[in-house]
Write a structure and sequence with these properties.
single chain, 12 helices, 1% strand, globular, binds geranyl diphosphate, binds magnesium ion
Length: 293
């Protein structure tokens, strides 16, 4: 079995937020960017995710123990808090350390990056922890994740400062909502049994998946605006996000059979990991002046 710290932090699950961060990084970087800022930014990202997931593990301890291993990056019943390998107090200490580390590294970059990591930390906290615990509130769950993805996208952009485009930011937010919806539907049976009123439990799997069509329509309009107004770099991206979201929305709706969504998590994690790596490489090539958009 993986080490207890890996099971606590769940780095594989970070890939969902690594993508918006890497895309922002790739578009924002210029040959004038400070390489040290890039390293600090990735540390801030790692500590932000560590904080959010430790806080989530603490808050979810009593529901995670019922998990059967399906449709997640791991079987949550093996969380070290559930198996008593790490105490709640120990996890709380770790979370405070991660929180301060994320803010410290963010502080070294720029004030906007700091503010966005602070917002990310707040969202990570109110997503999991009572009294707000937005993960159990219809719409709150989607909104919280989409806002966090939007914030980390802008944080990524702000490292280099190029391409701060309002429509791109809106697109990142809408796209994150689209991609989050199927993940809350794959959790439907487990969340319902655990008594959590997530968006999927409240609206029903079919209805909530159908809202993906509406969101995709909005994204297509934003994509067209970006295509008509932005530079070549963003034009290509606008086309790609329109195509990707259309295919993903159609596939997710087709795959729903009797309240069960048959999508393996790897259909999200693997393309997201490959795209993240591609955008990080793209950013580094731009930094060294090897690609001039
Ligand atoms: C796990 O949520 C997701 C997170 C801890 C990331 C949230 C971070 C933000 C900044 C919003 P979950 O408890 O709904 O899913 P799982 O059952 O996989 O733990
Ligand atoms: Mg959880």
């Amino acid at each position: 079995m993986k080490s207890k710290f890996i099971r606590l932090l769940r780095p594989i699950a970070w890939i969902t937020f690594l993508l918006p961060f890497s895309v922002g990084f790739g578009f924002g970087i210029t040959s004038k960017s400070n390489p040290l800022h890039i390293i600090f930014a990735f540390f801030a990202f790692i500590f932000w995710m560590s904080f959010s997931f430790v806080v989530n593990a603490i808050a979810d301890k009593d529901v995670d123990k019922f998990h059967n291993g399906r449709s997640k990056d791991m079987n949550l019943a093996y969380q070290p808090l559930v198996t008593n390998e790490i105490t709640k107090k120990g996890a709380l200490y770790l979370s405070v350390m991660f929180l301060f580390s994320s803010l410290l590294f963010a502080w070294l970059i720029n004030p906007l990056f700091f503010l966005l990591i602070l917002i990310g930390d707040v969202l990570g906290y109110i997503y999991s922890m009572p009294p707000m615990r937005l993960k159990t509130k219809p719409v709150g769950d989607i909104l919280c994740n989409a806002l966090a993805a939007g914030a980390i996208f802008v944080a990524g952009l702000s490292i280099g400062g190029a391409n701060m485009n309002l429509f791109m930011i809106l697109a990142a937010f809408i796209m994150a909502s689209i991609f989050y919806i199927p993940t809350v539907v794959t959790d439907y049976a487990f969340d319902k049994k655990a008594g959590l009123t997530t968006s999927a439990v409240f609206f029903g799997p079919k209805k909530i998946l159908q809202t993906m069509y509406l969101l995709t329509a909005i994204l297509v309009i934003i994509g067209i605006i970006i295509f008509l107004t932005a530079n070549t770099e963003l034009k290509v991206f606008a086309l790609l996000i329109i195509l990707y979201s259309l295919v993903f929305t159609l596939a997710s709706n087709i795959k729903l059979k009797k309240e069960r969504l048959y999508i393996h998590e790897n259909w999200i994690l693997i393309p997201f990991a490959i795209l993240s790596a591609a955008f990080v490489i793209y950013g580094i090539l731009k930094l060294f002046g090897l690609v001039i958009p």
